[in-house]
Amino acid sequence: MPFKLPSCWCVRAWSKAVWTRITITKEGESLTTDLGRVLTAMVTPFDNNLELNLPMVRKLARYLVDNGADGLVVSGTTGESPTLTKEEKLELFKTVVDEVGGQAVVVAGTGSYNTAASIELTQAAEKQGVDAVMLVCPYYNKPTQEGLYQHFRAIAESTNLPVMLYNIPGRTGVNLLPQTVGRLAAIPNIIAVKEASGNLDQATELRRVLPEDFSIYSGDDALTLPLLSVGAKGVVSVAAHLIGAKIQEMINAFTAGNVTLAGKLHRSLFPLFKGLFITTNPAPVKAALAMLGLAVGPPRPPLVDLDESQKEKLRDILREARLL
Predict the structure, then answer these.
(1) Whose C-alpha in 43, 148, 255, 263 is 20 to 30 A from the C-alpha of 115?
(2) Predicted TM-score of the model (pTM)
(3) CB–CB of 135/110 below 8 Å?
(4) In 128-160, which residue ranges form alpha helices assigned H by DSSP?
(5) Which residues contact 171 (CB under 8 A, 6 or more apart)?
(6) Which parts of the chain register pLDDT below 70?
(7) What total number of domains does the chain contain?
(8) Nearest of 156, 162, 166, 54 to residue 105 by alpha carbon
(9) In this structure, is residue 28 part of a structural domain?
């Protein structure tokens, strides 16, 4: 179906590899295009029965925003989206928006391997007042690059919200290539990509082919500084649950031209970045939060909590980072 411009839009026009931004506005309306630099990939708190713990959702959202997060990504990989029902996801979006909306950007993870279901959830999330959506590459069914393009285009054209693409081939089994992202960048409300391929060559090619105002976010804390060096804007972070202000400091140092300080901070934080992946995410960061007094509960099956040896190793890492 043809794409209809909403009443307020930032449109990218392409001609001979030169991008220009045209702003179409209506009085009193705006579109979120700056998602910030540090977005925390928020865990989903559960109680002892593995049901949503909404009071802790509020407490955690507030804690994260007060400790360095420009925004929160809700119901992403770290939020255990595959084990959440549609109703639970909408309850999460509503609760987080109610707690920190207007103070931080709220990005809803609404993508899946089902295009129609992704459209339905995206439209429902929009009604809950989220600021943007994040769309993961379809997993398991392994679409072609053309299939990926059509999938993301259909979802983007179904909403007025800004869209962040999410490339994580290690989990999805498919790699969203820079050329496909370049095609998708021509769709006005697709404004960013979370790049978690772990490939600096790919991140460099993304920056080379994308318009300057299209944001690239690292999807791996340990690669945030390297990706900044090739043109990324920020990070969708797991470690920001614990050290959001330090990650902000590192990014601010880099953008201010103090590469020496940024490098020093990166190296000091590196053991924690890696330690939060001693087993499948989000089990380590949930355990770390519990050690710091934030009882977010264990992950839902099929994921499991850390064993005692892993917990002791994590405690050592937290002590080294002076968090315990």
Answers:
(1) 43
(2) 0.91
(3) yes
(4) 145-156
(5) 77, 139
(6) 1-32
(7) 1
(8) 162
(9) no
